Amino acid sequence: AGDGSGQPGSAAEGGGPPAPQRVLFPPTFSVSEIKNKQRRHFMFLRWKQQQRKEKLAAKKKRRKEREALGDKAPPKAIPKTIENQRVYDETTVDPNDEEVAFDEATDEFAPYFNRQTVPKILITTSDRPRGRTVRFCEQLSTVLPNSHVYYRRGLALKRIIPQCIARDFTDLIVINEDRNIPNGLLLSHLPDGPTAHFRMSSVRLRKEIKRKGKEPTEHAPEVILNNFTTRLGHSIGRMFASLFPHDPQFTGRQVATFHNQRDYIFFRFHRYIFKSEKKVGIQELGPRFTLKLRSLQKGTFDSKFGEYEWIHKRREMDTSRRKFHL
């Protein structure tokens, strides 16, 4: 056996097979073990820089190999994302499904899509709103054509809804606030519902948006609805679509976008500009906000006796990061 110095032992001297030399491995090293904060941060930055260099070198190597192979190069691998690894939902809508087409032809939004009604919207707030919520409602009314803002003071929603129906309003939007910040949106389709309750976050008014365009015009905007693929998502998408006039006025070059990503609905309002025959630029007009569906209720708003079609239950529904409902 060796003596620990890396030299062969007595067996090798006696003519027998040489004993294997002991390999001394370097001790494992972890940046987190460095006690000095500045030194630890410096070593971490060096490690990250080395990782980036290795990643860039591997990318260049793969590109050269693909150029050398030419047409024989294998297809590029599709990167794994949470979206393309989404758990299949059995309620995902097939565009050619006759049952879905029949349901949509007879649901509460059918009069709008059959052009029997014209959107007329009432925007109101929680009781005694603050300045930021009031400004948000005013800016939201410039996005939704034929909308009217009502500053609510102590009047219950159950009394507001019959008055809206009597005055031919098709939708009621209620903006709730907490600590002077808009944090909720209630959307009720009149006269028969449904009613959706959203949590609102990331609200940005026009003055808080960088490189914003000029004030929006009164033209009816185009509407873009992205990634509303399930039956629940279709209902929410149809609810948003029914807020806007049937025929957009393309001369206004304004677009309202509801983009669903991982059950978060991002709203943006843009104007596009033709820079040349081939190049098009966009300007954000604002406001912007993000919605998260909390519940969908049948009929108009009824907090005590309302029948709910869908309620978001975090502990039961959010068990997988790849499971989405819209």
From TrEMBL:
<protein>
    <recommendedName>
        <fullName>Ribosome production factor 1</fullName>
    </recommendedName>
</protein>
<keyword id="KW-0698">rRNA processing</keyword>
<feature type="compositionally biased region" description="Gly residues">
    <location>
        <begin position="1"/>
        <end position="16"/>
    </location>
</feature>
<dbReference type="GO" id="GO:0030687">
    <property type="term" value="C:preribosome, large subunit precursor"/>
</dbReference>
<dbReference type="InterPro" id="IPR044281">
    <property type="entry name" value="IMP4/RPF1"/>
</dbReference>
<feature type="region of interest" description="Disordered">
    <location>
        <begin position="1"/>
        <end position="25"/>
    </location>
</feature>
<keyword id="KW-0690">Ribosome biogenesis</keyword>
<comment type="function">
    <text>May be required for ribosome biogenesis.</text>
</comment>
<feature type="compositionally biased region" description="Basic and acidic residues">
    <location>
        <begin position="65"/>
        <end position="74"/>
    </location>
</feature>
<dbReference type="Pfam" id="PF04427">
    <property type="entry name" value="Brix"/>
</dbReference>
<dbReference type="GO" id="GO:0000470">
    <property type="term" value="P:maturation of LSU-rRNA"/>
</dbReference>
<dbReference type="InterPro" id="IPR007109">
    <property type="entry name" value="Brix"/>
</dbReference>
<dbReference type="GO" id="GO:0042134">
    <property type="term" value="F:rRNA primary transcript binding"/>
</dbReference>
<dbReference type="GO" id="GO:0005730">
    <property type="term" value="C:nucleolus"/>
</dbReference>
<feature type="region of interest" description="Disordered">
    <location>
        <begin position="49"/>
        <end position="80"/>
    </location>
</feature>
<feature type="domain" description="Brix">
    <location>
        <begin position="119"/>
        <end position="302"/>
    </location>
</feature>
<dbReference type="GO" id="GO:0000460">
    <property type="term" value="P:maturation of 5.8S rRNA"/>
</dbReference>
